[in-house]
Design brief:
Layout (H helix, E strand, L loop, with lengths): L3 H7 L6 E7 L13 H14 L7 H16 L7 E7 L2 E7 L6 E5 L4 H9 L3 E7 L2 E8 L2 E9 L5 H7 L14 H32 L3 E5 L2 H9 L3 H4 L2 E4 L8 H5 L1
Helix pairs in contact: 2-3, 6-7
Length: 255
């Protein structure tokens, strides 16, 4: 995952090296077929960039360029952007699910686009909730990762014993009316507590990850309670999605 610590480590790579940003978005028609647009651009840009490479480094530049082209020829489209740092003792590739501008340079690592992406795509906390629990996800740079699920545990065994204690005689009727209402009320109190616990976890995520936004997915009966338990500054950065998506798989949820 792209991060400031990763970018800092890239700045220490041995020089000179080739830095390459490629727009490989498969939705663009020019990037399809045996001669995708990004390879056509690479060939033209490499010829232009070669004029600025010192004579003593020309052979090294061509070696890394050939290395990159050979690698790209075997790549199937699956991500929107790709960043490569290639040198005699270096090979670092970063596939991205966000777009980048085509860029090629030789010498020191070029990191400005990566730093811009980090600033633009701050992590988002996605919480998908239903009556069984709350699933937490981190969404960043077009990718979603599940963190953990908070399962809702409500023990009603003692409640039933208390409410039905008078049912020793065989012909006693099942509780109804006020007794049923009291039982439902106790269930709702438990869910309110669980929603507050989810809100507390969201606040910790926000504090630790500097999250840009919160997305709560589920019935408003639950997501509304969670949102109201958040502080005002977090409520302003929270969006509610009123859909039951808690039990679908990760790929469908991300879509």
């Amino acid at each position: 995952m792209l991060s400031t610590s990763l970018v800092a480590s890239l700045s220490q790579l041995p020089q000179p090296l080739l830095t390459l940003y490629l727009n490989m978005n498969p939705s663009e028609q020019t990037n399809r077929g045996p001669n995708p647009g990004y390879l056509t651009w690479l060939k033209a840009e490499a010829r232009s960039a070669a004029h600025d490479v010192p004579a003593i480094e020309q052979e090294l530049f061509q070696e890394q360029l050939n290395r990159v082209e050979h690698f790209l020829r075997g790549q199937a489209l699956g991500h929107k952007g790709l960043v490569i740092f290639a040198g005699p003792s270096t090979w670092q590739q970063l596939p991205l699910q966000v777009g980048v501008e085509n860029e090629l340079s030789w010498g020191r690592p070029q990191l400005s686009q990566l730093l811009g992406l980090i600033d633009e795509h701050k992590p988002c906390c996605v919480v998908v909730v239903d009556r069984a629990g709350a699933r937490f996800f981190r969404y960043e740079f077009g990718e979603m990762t599940e963190i953990k699920e908070n399962k809702f545990q409500i023990d009603i065994s003692q409640w039933k014993k208390k409410d039905h204690a008078h049912m020793a005689r065989p012909h006693t009727k099942m509780p109804h009316g006020p007794q049923v209402d009291a039982f439902k009320q106790r269930i709702e109190v438990q869910y309110s507590r669980l929603c507050r616990e989810v809100a507390e976890r969201i606040k910790r995520f926000w504090k630790n990850e500097s999250s840009a936004s919160i997305i709560l997915v589920g019935s408003e009966r639950l997501t509304g309670q969670i949102e109201r338990a958040l502080p005002p500054d977090l409520q302003q950065n929270t969006m509610l999605v009123k859909q039951d998506l808690a039990r679908i798989d990760l790929a469908d949820l991300q879509q």
